[in-house]
Amino acid sequence: MRLSAWSMVIGFLLAGCCATPRTSTLKRFEFSEPHMGTLFSITLYAPDETSAKTGAQAAFQRVTELDRIMTDYNPDSELMRLCRQPAGQATLVSHDLFDILKYSGEVSRQTGGAFDVTVGPYVAAWRAARKSKVLPSAQEIAAMRESVGYQKLRLDTRHQTVTLLAPNMRLDLGGIGKGYAADRALAALRQHGIRRALVAASGDIALGDPPPGKVGWKVGVAVMDGAPDEVTRTVLLHNAGISTSGDSEQNIEINGVRYSHIVDPATGLGLTNRIQVTIIGPNATVTDGLDTPLGIMGVERVLALVDSRPELAAIITTRDDRGIHVFPSRRFKDIPTAKGPVGMTNVQ
């Protein structure tokens, strides 16, 4: 994308602080609840506490609904019921599940399979390996590979059905579900007339219109291996999504090798290279779906992909024996910044 086009995108992100009349009457409210194995936090501006609570409750209820659909921890979730269907049988699914599986397939194709929701067998085995500190054998990984591959998932848009094309398939939406839920929570707030809001689900953040009188929400870009509230810079965003993926907080050493919690679909094992990716895009579904596979793809492929898409910007940080290396995408330098640090989930 040319600079002039990207300038229009930036202009869109920062436009119209006066879009809603009488913003001076809005008050700031904050809410948080545990969902999807993490803490969902909502920051919003509303005219009164009753409106704020009503909107927040609707947003959290939407996240609860999606968790019941998408979790792989509950055997009775819609996702797990789908996984128990016989191979080759078309199964009617809800709009939400079809929607996220359809978009997941698009991300798989864009990333050459680095993102793949069929990696459930690998993820389950890796969870066990992290507890036992015993790697799955080559034979076990080879057996699981028969059930892994995004091409083994067939979606019929006309009939809203999903067909598993191999036996013993297990789908895992952990790499995109939180961002999707954050976006849907933000949409629920908008349905209640609350547009100046932000929903944070750990490292995935969905941003609506900016706070009153501001050009954007302040969101800090985390420092690799830094303290929880340590950031490299603070960006200003609204009507966008931002996600960060890395292994600073979740990793394990087995047989002298440091492994990430991020499973590579090509190997069935956790990543061993140190990489952190922060990506900015049009919404949190897009950024959550991309931050993990971009960490798998490597710096050159990541920058090529991000620079080819005008709606994206990213900064990649790697660490090796020579130290820490930072690689911003072409458009990352055009993202507005603010003075003064602020943590990833401690937004303003």
What does the model show?
The chain is α+β, with helices and mostly antiparallel strands. It has a domain at 78-164: T-fold. Helices cover 33% and strands 26% of the residues. The chain has 9 helices and 16 strands. The chain has helices at 3-14, 49-70, 78-83, 95-110, 120-132, 138-145, 177-191, 284-297, 299-307, and strands at residues 27-35, 38-46, 90-92, 153-156, 161-164, 197-201, 204-207, 217-222, 231-237, 240-245, 251-254, 257-260, 274-281, 313-320, 323-328, 337-338. The strands form 4 sheets. It has an 8-stranded antiparallel beta sheet, covered by helices on one side. Strands 3-5-4 form a 3-stranded antiparallel beta sheet, with helices on one face. Strands 8-9-16 form a 3-stranded antiparallel beta sheet, with no helix packed on it. A hairpin with a 2-residue loop joins strand 6 and strand 7 (204-207). Helix 2 (49-70) runs antiparallel to helix 7. The protein is globular, with a radius of gyration of 20 Å. It starts with a helix and ends in a 10-residue tail after the last strand.
